[in-house]
Specification:
With 445 residues, this protein is α/β, with parallel strands linked by helices. It contains 18 helices and 12 strands. The strands form 2 sheets. A 7-stranded mixed sheet has the order 9-8-7-6-10-11-12, with helices on both faces. A 5-stranded mixed sheet has the order 1-2-4-3-5. Helix 9 packs across helix 10. The longest helix has 25 residues. The two termini are 28 Å apart. The protein binds NADPH dihydro-nicotinamide-adenine-dinucleotide phosphate and (2Z)-2-iminopentanedioic acid. NADPH dihydro-nicotinamide-adenine-dinucleotide phosphate binds next to helix 10 and strand 7.
Length: 445
């Protein structure tokens, strides 16, 4: 590693103490950039990387709200506006008790490169709260969202910063957030939030986009290596928005999905998972997957077990960060797994990714493989800007074209900077260069 990069990583770790997820994400990107730096000395001389690793703006706020018992609760709200070189800050909101500033910074940092890779005009940002939506009534969720927006509204806008969903934030929360926003600003500013309901300005295909996009990306990787999806066995971790629609697309394309998971455990169904049953349990009833065997008695629920123990040919981590570690990677390799495509953000640890490289497991990194969600969010902004709505087919076709293009870019940049076939390398360098070129043209910003 170059002394410059090593020093920079150290400086960033020192300046962001107590934020291990953020430093993990930064390290992974900076390591990839070495060959770029040696060809472009102006990056070092202009301190571009230091600027890139420092958010343009970070907003922290109190979110007071009243629960159903009339008690006043207090949560923390975050919005990290990381980089606006390519467009308005764009990225989701995460509601989860584990949320910290460091977590939002890691997600916002990743978002910069992912959004750049889509080729669309979107900067990088992320937000959220340490609010735990689990076990809360709809009325509590609504009051929380309204209070959250009471502060957030002054920072967002269709040309400023455009939030969407992430873990714990789906159609219900987006509805409450948009309803509050509209009231507070007294304007029907559709493009200020994405992931909206399709009846009031949302894009058809946005709900499916991340999961579908991840499978489209995997399909490109497989085709590149003369492999197929049809009749292959797959496992998907998680059973939320990303996981469910990855499962659906895998099944549509003829794969057999044997297992998925949630925070309570794994469900294994040798006959292939039933998408409608999963959707009922997770999207509609918001229950634990332990209910699945009540619908299909042939299936087995394994409490507190990870999905990686189920032998598969292709694996799709779609739940959360660092959910697939070295020992999980070893298990996957032992079972003959040939491809891992990340639907979640940073689900594989650096050690796991290293092992995949050594063992020749094809690895599709999150920045590329899960970019379909934010890409269709940008398509939602385009529709909103022209007060139109495209058909599902139109959106899906554009999504497929975008995922194909991202796949091509990854290979192109990996090859150009001396790591042929390394998708993670190509995603980092390709995503970086587009942002860096814009930042150069802006001067010192
Ligand atoms: P959801 O909240 O819809 O679903 C998250 C799922 O992961 C739930 O099923 C949850 O279980 C499960 N889960 C959480 N922790 C664990 C764990 N340790 N082990 C197993 N399962 C777990 O979130 P999304 O599907 O939207 O997001 C999932 C990932 O994808 C996140 O990393 C997110 O940042 C990323 N992502 C999301 C995009 C989007 O458009 N939504 C776009 C790009 C990336 P339970 O139901 O029990 O809580
Ligand atoms: O991580 C992500 O890309 C998202 N949660 C989606 C962001 C968006 O703005 O649609």
């Amino acid at each position: 590693m170059s002394a410059y990069i090593e020093q920079l990583i150290q400086t960033i770790a020192d300046r962001n103490q107590g934020e291990p997820l953020f430093t993990q994400a930064v390290e992974e990107v900076l390591h990839s950039l070495e060959p770029v730096l040696s060809r472009h000395p102006e990056i070092e001389s202009s301190n571009l990387l230091e600027r890139l690793c420092e958010p343009e703006r970070q907003i922290l706020f109190r979110v007071p709200w009243e629960d159903d018992e009339g008690r006043v609760q207090v949560n923390r709200g975050f919005r990290v506006e990381f980089n606006s070189a390519l467009g308005p800050y764009k990225g989701g909101l995460r509601f989860n008790p584990a949320v910290t500033l460091g977590m939002i910074k890691f997600l916002g940092f990743e978002q910069i490169f992912k959004n750049s890779l889509t080729g669309l005009m979107i900067g990088g940002g992320k937000g959220g709260s340490d609010f735990n939506p689990k076990g809360r009534s709809d009325a509590e969720i609504m009051r929380f969202c309204q209070s959250f927006m009471m502060e957030l509204h002054r920072h967002i806008g269709e040309k400023t910063d455009v939030p969407a969903g992430d873990m714990g934030v789906g159609a219900r929360e987006i509805g409450y957030l948009f309803g509050a926003y509209k009231r507070l600003i007294n304007r029907y500013e559709l493009g200020a939030i994405t992931g909206k309901g399709v009846g009031y300005g949302g894009s058809l295909g946005r709900k499916e986009a991340t999961g579908f996009g991840c499978v489209y990306f995997a399909t490109e990787m497989l085709a590149e290596h003369k492999l197929q999806l049809e009749r292959k066995t797959c496992v998907v971790s998680g059973s939320g928005n990303v996981a469910l629609y990855a499962i659906k697309k895998l099944q549509n394309l003829g794969a057999r999905v044997l297992a998925c998971s949630d925070s309570t455990g794994t469900v294994y169904d040798a006959a292939g998972l039933d998408f409608n049953a999963l959707r009922l349990i997770k999207e509609i009833e918001r229950c634990s997957l332990s209910k699945y065997p009540m619908i299909h008695s042939r299936a087995e629920f394994r409490p507190n077990k990870k999905v990686w123990e189920v032998p598969c040919e292709y694996a799709f981590p779609c739940a959360t960060q660092n959910e697939l570690d070295l020992s999980d990677a070893e298990t996957l390799v032992e079972h003959g797994c040939k491809l891992v495509a990340e639907g979640a953000n940073m689900p594989c640890t650096p050690e796991a990714i290293h092992l995949f490289g050594e063992k020749g497991v094809l690895f599709g990194p999150a920045k590329a493989a899960n970019a379909g969600g934010v890409a269709v969010s940008a398509l939602e902004m385009q529709q909103n800007a022209t007060w139109t709505q495209w058909t599902f087919e139109e959106v899906d076709q554009r999504l497929q074209a975008i995922m194909k293009q991202i796949h091509k870019s990854c290979l192109f940049y990996a090859n150009r900077y001396g790591q042929p076939g390394n998708y993670a390398h190509g995603a980092n360098t390709g995503g970086f260069l587009r942002v860096a070129e814009a930042m150069f043209e802006f001067g010192v910003t």
